[in-house]
Amino acid sequence: MMSRIRSLLSSAVAPIVRVAGNRPCAVGIAGTVVALAAALVPLSMMWLMRHQVIDHQRETSENLNAMIALDLENNFRFYDVQLQDLVSDEQALAAHGQAVLADTDRAGIFKSLPLESYVDTKFVVNAMGVIVAAQQKGKDNIGMSVDDRRYFIEQKNKPDIGLYISHPFTTRAKEGGHVMALSRRINAADGSFAGIAFFEVRLEFFQRLFERIQLDAPGVVEILLDDGTMVASKPYSDVVVGSSVAASPIYKRLADKGRGTLIARGRDGIERLYTFRRVAGLPFFAVVAPTMDDVLEDWKRHFRLAAAASVFWGIALTVGAWLLALALRQKLRVQAELARLAATDPLTKLHNRRTFDARFDAEWKHAMRRQRPISALFIDIDRFKLYNDTYGHAEGDKVLASVAQCIGATVRRSVDVVARYGGEEFVVLLPDTEEAGAARVAEEVRRNVRGLDIENTGSQIGRVTVSIGCASCVPAAGELKDALLAAADALLYKAKASGRDQVRSAPLAPAATEAVAPR
């Protein structure tokens, strides 16, 4: 079983290894892509974590908003119940004709109302806007007129307004300070306006709600009226409280929705995560807005570490991949050089006989399939043994190299094959070339070699020359390729026997189905 698995893995990996080994640049590019992916995947995961961090903070802020809203709702409902009780008692007195009783006679209506930490006092105001009754420490304010206050005017003009919560203002009571008024209308027996009952709630009440909320500046927690008036803020500022943010784009967005979350820059240019919620049944918005820097502080630290590690490993993988690619490229160059050396004659730099045989086999089959002519030239340096004996083997090697270079320069087509066949013999294969064309090439070779004007006292003309045999054919089925070389070799001997420094050519006879191996 294991051997089968190894065999399958080997068969699957082998093509990849082969492709990689033959294409070094592909290895470098693939390594770069892998490195990029290795860097991007953890960074992408960290980016997803960023959204999770923001979502977690959003949930936390929503919980804080819910806590603030619940506190506001519970306290103001409690205040409203007290107001309603006060209004009921006052209207009961009026129904019995006691609406003009002195304050001392009204003391009973306040007995059931508890003292509140952030409610300075509770008042009853007549239809003229004059305070006619107050709870305990507010008695010094009896006789004070509040007919110009919005909480009085609204109740007077709007019989069905119910509970009215005013904007923050500076109280006229002797205690002083910033307060908000909660008021309800008092009706006479006939339903006409008889006055109001109201409480003054110090703004410290709202700031108390923020005590349990841990939020570092410049993060903010705010309570707004639904018209954009700031009631309370953390951190506290006398300048901010009582001001309006109705023109702020952030307020416009939260006022339209009533509840939700948005990321935006405040008036101070700091980006925050704003979570807001309208308090049910009351004209308040609770807003919790930590800065994005605080929200993402830990995430940014982890992201920087992850980014540094990703970049490091990405660079390491990329460098490693390209070093491997360069090594493979050098290996291919060495292999190519070795292959070239294995296919090349070291002295003449022409193809060697083994390479010629392989090319000849391929070109012969190609010519047979297409029924196209093919020609072969056998070239031999005349009186070369005598030249070696006269001038020495070193000079003989120089002559071989010069003649080889001359032949290679004369036979210029890329499909032609020029090779050293052995000793002072050379062979030229001319695919898709008939006898007349091959004979012209052979004559040009002979003429160019003689034009080298290399001295050879052993030759009858005193110069290095060559004799050439040229044979051509269109390969027939069953015909052996060696027959073409044998015919060229035979024609070479005829050229030598006829006086050397000449070309002999002839087509291969159709009946030549057997070949004698050339020398």
Short structural summary:
This protein is α+β, with helices and mostly antiparallel strands. The protein has a domain at about 355-505: Reverse transcriptase/Diguanylate cyclase domain (Alpha-Beta Plaits, 2-Layer Sandwich). It contains 14 helices and 16 strands.
Overview of the molecule:
About 50% of the residues lie in helices and about 20% in strands. α2 (about 25-95) packs antiparallel against α9 (about 295-345). The protein is α+β, with helices and mostly antiparallel strands. It has helices at about 1-20, 25-95, 105, 110, 150-155, 205-210, 250-255, 290-295, 295-345, 355-370, 385-390, 395-410, 435-450, 480-495; strands at about 120-125, 130-135, 165, 170, 180-185, 195-200, 220-225, 230-235, 260-265, 270-280, 285-290, 375-380, 415-420, 425-430, 465-475, 505. The radius of gyration is 55 Å and the shape is rod-shaped. The protein has a domain at about 355-505: Alpha-Beta Plaits (2-Layer Sandwich). The two termini are about 55 Å apart. β9 and β10 form a beta hairpin. About 30% of the residues are buried. The chain contains 14 helices and 16 strands. Keywords: Membrane, Transmembrane, Transmembrane helix.
